[in-house]
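User: Please predict the structure of the protein below. I'd like the answer in structure-token form so I can feed it into my own downstream comparison script.

Assistant: Understood. Taking the following sequence of 170 residues as input:
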Amino acid sequence: MGVAPQIAITERAAPVLQWKKWLRSYFYFGMTLLCSAVLIWGFGHTVPDVLLHPAVPRPKILWVHAVVFSGWLVFAMVQTGLVRMRKVKVHRLLGWFGAGLAATMVVVGVATAIALGRFDLHVLHQPGADTFEIVSFADMILFPALVAMAIVWRKNVELHRRLFCWQRWS
């Protein structure tokens, strides 16, 4: 009699354990794809009006920003895919490229924020456009701080992966 209840509990627990194992294996990769899809969908609505066919031509730095940020999204998907496929050596090697890409993103981000702030104020004559600048500059402080912590804690897998997730979407 004592064996039957234990077998029943184990049989019921098996699907839960399988789900937890699957979730542990695919969570970061799946979230990277999901967040990238949301960003692409969200910004995809603005690209035709803002970049491709604007009523007033935008500063060229916006194109550079679009390319660099798109590169970051591709980098994030590749990195989480490499970890998922257990190609950790390649992941670590590409990580240094990511550090350089992150530094480029900060420089381009600051330049884009300044150029678009001036553009909105002087060309589009939008009152209060400069007040939104604080969001861009806060991102340019937070993003490199998270990247730096991810680099410092790159050998601590749990901290590193969580920092990578935060920096990707800041």
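That's the full token string. Residues 38 and 145 are 24 Å apart (CA to CA).
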